[in-house]
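User: quick one, fold this
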Amino acid sequence: MHCILRILLIPVLLMLWTSIDAQSAPALTCAQVDDAGAVELSWVSDPAGDWAGLTPFAYHVQILDASPSFGQFFQEDLAAVFTTGANLSGAVNFSTQSFCFTVTMTDDLGAETSPSDTICGMHLEVAPGLVPGTVDLDWNSPYPFDAPAGAGANFIVEQQMPDASWSQVATVLYEPGNVALSLEVDVCADFVYYRIRLAGDAGMGGVACDHLSAPAGSFLADEVDPTPPVIATTDVDSLTGLATLSWEPSVSSDAAGYLVYLCAGGFQSLVATLEDGELSWTNAFSTAGLAPESYNVAAFDSCYVDGAPDPGAAGPMCAASLFLMVQGAECSDQSLLSWSPVVHWEGGVDRYEIRATEELPDGSLGPTQLLASVPGNQFQFHHQGANFNSVYHYRVEAFAADAPYSQNSNAVSQDFIYPTGPTWATLTEASITSDTSAVIRVEADPTGAGTIAYELYRSDPGDDDFDYVNFAVLGGGDFTFNDGGIDARLGSYRYYVQAVNSCGDSILSTTTAHTVFLDGAAMTEQLANDLNWSPYLGWASAPIAHTLYRSEQLDGTLESLLTLDGTVFGYEDDVTDLIDTPGQFCYVIRSEFDASPAPAPGSGWTAWSNVVCLTQDPVVWVPNAIVPTGVNNMFRPVLGFSDIDSYQLVVYSRWGDILFRSTDPDYGWDGTRQGQPLPEAFYPYHITIQDGAGAIVSHTGQVLVLR
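Assistant:
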């Protein structure tokens, strides 16, 4: 009977064993190792839901050596109540190395499931890096074989903060063998703990959990200086001329502030310390409006030395301001702009934009205009077409080729005020002072601005063209030109004066003045001189009077003869009463303008003509006979318009002998020779005199002596 029973039980047990072994194994989801060496395992008891009818009796955790040996270390048997996981502690310190785990379950009949997939506790090792200022982290993957589909995509690296909380500092892509990382140390000097986290697979109905390593740490020191920031711009304020430096944040996460250096003469001098993380700084003592300035920036971390920031290296290149210079071409509407290139941008300069603001003569500002956009390798621009009497305020803006940076230059003002001069100029007189010279007088606006050249131009008689004579440089007021290159005997000369500014441009001209040309003829038969003259032209109206002056002989004193109306241009001078003079008469005309009353300007202007001298022919009355014993007993001529100082009378015999000689017109010949009466006869004579102009005049004849 018992044998039969035994035989019957064996198939039943075989059925029961076959039944539980066919059930799915528990599914390990994560392993978390704490700093005490305990491990917290999580699993899903019935991942496939096929344990129906089974009564779990116990869970068995197989603790294995790490990959690749997976040797049996020991087994932890747990009560059936641990259906979702268990904390293993005390038996072994799981933080000393990586341990791997599998889980099985036995039911109340002693049947056992197949083992779960193997997972391993992550073991982290931390050590100072070979590179100073870094820390090296190495760990193992919780999945010695293929990771489940629901596992995390990245290892999370966490660092313990001073308040004992944990903060993520890095991520590492989950890939086979990708279980190491080097980090920059961000503490000055301290023991720093790290741990590794990886999201577990919660796709089988379990509660989501993360794999977690035990914390591991090392004494670390921040021996790496922060990376210097990238300088963005060295901008110049167009109004103040102050330079403002701006930069990008340092890529070093531990950068606590920045040091600004001024670069000059190959040296870098510290000018500012910014401890609050600011990314720009304005130099209140900048002179970037007058000369280029260069700056550099270094970052420092919170690891001060002796209470002061310990700076890292500054950038490899100082960043200079964009300095603009402007050269204006005198007397031109053009200017040449030159600027220093921007060289601190890694990608170079895309373009420079040139802008100008026009300040109008009334002081108001027009809109800022974009004059041109030039390539980044061009450092000059020629501005043309500026408006005279305006001031242009120029600046240049550079644009980076591969970054959103733009940098302004200093502002430079260029004055395009055109030199003007007097508002009026009047030619007040053009007078002949000698046969070869003339004087030209001008009145010009004494308030005229600038240095002005006044140029004199002359047209000769019978010539329509004007020729340059000479110039005077002055501001204004009254001034005089002397022209010594004329021949006043030829006719009337025309003159005008033009004002020329410092640009060589004529800005105004006077009216043209015509000199008074005096001409005449001696009418010897009428014993008169006929005079006529041309009008003076160039005043606002015709002369009001002509005054005729006359002198006896060229070197005589001119005396006013009479004043005629300004519309009279001729006069006949009867010189009968002056027959006892040498016979030369010199004349000059003075034209007068607005003598009285006195308007302004132009009161009492005058102009003198050339001097013309007319000579009357000498008058010689000679008796043709004398009676030595009668009334007409003396032979001597009666002279008129003759120069008696050169008088000579010679009487000859019929054979040519000199009988009598006299240089005194009052001393005549009495018909004798050496006191002896001469016989009646014709006796030749020769009279020599000079006319008023100094010409020799001879008179010959015969005188009859009667007894």
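User: anything notable?
Assistant: The chain has a mean pLDDT of 90.
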